[in-house]
Predict the structure.
Amino acid sequence: MGMLSEALKIPDQNTVKYMIEELQKKLEKKDAVIAAAARAKDVAIKEKDAEINAPKKQLEHYKQSE
C-alpha cells in the first residue's frame, strides 16, 4: 500500500506544480494589463495637462506683450 501512496503523490505534486504555474501565468498577464492601463492613463493625464497649460501660456504671453 505504501508504494501506491508514493506513486499517487508524484502526479498530485505535478498537478499542484502545474496549477501554480498556470495561476502565475494568469497573474503575469493581469499585471501586464494593469501596467498597460497605467501607462495609458499617464499619457492621457499628460495630454490633459498640456491642454490646460496651453491657454495659461498664451495668457502669460499676452500679458507680457501688453
Summary: Helices lie at 2-65. The mean pLDDT is 89. The chain is about 95% helix and 0% strand.
